[in-house]
Amino acid sequence: MSWRKSSNLAWLRDLPGVREGEPLGTRTSFGIGGPAEFFMEAANPQSIELALEGCRLRGIPYLLLGAGTNLLIADAGIEGLVVRVVNRDYEVEGTRIRAAAGLKMMRLARIAADANLRGFEFAIGVPGTVGGAVYQNAGCWGKELREVLVEARGFQPGADRRTWSAQDLAFGYRTSALRAGPLRGSLVIDATIKLERGDGEESKRLMTRLTNERSQTQPIKTKNCGSVFMNPSGDSAGRLIQAAGLKGARQGAAVISQLHGNFIVNEGGAKAADVSALIDRARSEVMRRFGIELEREVELVGKW
After folding, report:
1. How many CB atoms are closer than 10 A to CB 1?
2. Whole-angstrom Cα distance, residue 7 to residue 2?
3. Does the pLDDT at position 89 exceed 90?
4. Has 239 been annotated as catalytic?
5. pTM above 0.85, yes or no
6. Which of 84, 174, 179, 283 is labelled catalytic?
């Protein structure tokens, strides 16, 4: 039975701060995507929890949104409710930092350095939020969040609040139980990481060097979603796409970056369908030429 009963629509319209037909393109790093049927953003976890539980009870589909990285939203938009998490609180206690889900990972990397803590410098290369990083076990330069995460607090609709250990989250390469497991649909409230004492100025110098090196090899100043594909075992998706001769391949205003084959750039006005066509082209050509199936890292959401 469809969830679009008049009582459900009335409930959605009565949610605090909710908006209808909210454009989502400006809320993603790609700059692409149709509207959210219903949209709300909140810093207070309790209000988000109430909204998610209400959706569960009514069978209303919902999507949790952070910084909108690693995401390709359909041109037709997203049905149901989109909830954007914007809580950016943090607390430093000794060598541990508790960070709210809406805090940017790059900001948290600088907070750690300011506290003279080391081991989180890799996060300067992760453009998303803490919540999104927990969701997909984000990482960069061979380091991953699971290496420093102590626990995450969250809310699972139908099961109330929970504290999840790294084991509970079942981290894998760019995935977790939140993305592809029993915790799917759950809200990350905050995460606690444990680092080591060090020289904050040295950490800042390292992050500057890493960022400069990254700018030479990745189109970080363009509209993109980050890595489009996961790296296959023992190889690089970017290398395979380059070897297939696809750097610079274009579909509309979407282009496979000349700088790095595993990035697709929105040059202005690209549609989700354009990006999807390039993704399919890269996958089929790499499979045809090398017999390797590329697995998407970017997540396609919405009405495809």
Report:
1. 5
2. 12
3. yes
4. no
5. yes
6. 174
